[in-house]
Amino acid sequence: MSHPLEVPAEKIPAPGQRTLLRWNDRNLLLFNVAGQLHAIDDSCPHQGASLFGGRLEGHTLQCSAHGLRFDLATGYLLNSTRVCVTRFPVETLEGRVFIIVAKEPKE
């Protein structure tokens, strides 16, 4: 089951920029690459380093901890289909932006 997380208007990044959002106990990153929004988990799958400060070149994000480079469009490590960062669909409806996240079960 999924849950739409609305992004506050002031947190929607301008082209070439990014923003950090908190949802439950997770940090999510929202990138604007040439007008296209991409949302990922702020945790590198290699060793959990934050990706927020990584270098962005086009759709490629480089982890600042170990240099791994991910394609924001697919989430996969460049030249690999085995390692990927968690991606979330982004939807725009009537000028509002939503990140679609999996609803976590209640304990």
TrEMBL record:
InterPro entries: Rieske_2Fe-2S, Rieske_2Fe-2S_sf. Its cofactor is [2Fe-2S] cluster. Keywords: 2Fe-2S, Iron, Iron-sulfur, Metal-binding. It comes from the Bacteria. Transmembrane segments: none annotated. Residues 4-99 form the Rieske domain. CDD domains: Rieske. Belongs to the bacterial ring-hydroxylating dioxygenase ferredoxin component family. This is Rieske (2Fe-2S) protein. The lineage of its organism: Bacteria, Pseudomonadati, Pseudomonadota, Gammaproteobacteria, Oceanospirillales.
